[in-house]
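Table S2 (continued). Query chain:
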Amino acid sequence: MTFTLYPAVDIQDGRAVRLVRGREDSTTVYDADPVAAARRFADAGAQWLHVVDLDAAFTGVPRNRHLIADIVEATGVPVQASGGVRSMADLDASVGYGASRVVIGTTALEEPAFVAAAVAAHGERVAVGLDAEGTTLKARGWTAESGDLFDALHRFSMMGVARFVFTDIARDGMLTGPNVARLREVAEATPARVTASGGVASLDDLRVLRTAHPRVDGAIVGKALYAGRFTLAEALECCR
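Corresponding output:
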């Protein structure tokens, strides 16, 4: 099985940033130009990019979606887009701007029927993002509780969701290693593919994730790359 690495480009106020545990007041700016950041990842061999509109995630108003088109054009690399997808119009717009996959978070949790409609319209281009503290899901930029992780996994799996992006909020941006035990529980609870997010700090973490479970076939990596814990080339080699 191919294990895919997704370098993250999180965009806030038009800049590439990282947050600690999703807190809006914990911003560190890594590049004033997110397109340039994405191009560096592509030049280093990235086969996918994970692009997040943080402004849309916090406010529901997309301010950076046009950058998806800019990143796709500049890199030629498939983009997994996330953040602020609140309606079918938002989903269609993200696909129209060039996203190869769109992650639905808050709206999936607050309006589950939307997921069924999204899957009917776009099939495997739709993924559901499940961001949890323990087993409690968080929505609206991780500011509101929104149900149980495993209840949601069952509900959305029955709707035909082909991929979940699972984030352990306690590990996100902390460089403390992924929660592999919880990740395995998530993968056991669904027939869908699972992308791991949160906590990757070392190449050893990637090696563990690569063999964590047959349905865990990718990982999103952000802060460890920006902080120089390893290079993307090293990470890609590790994941082969």
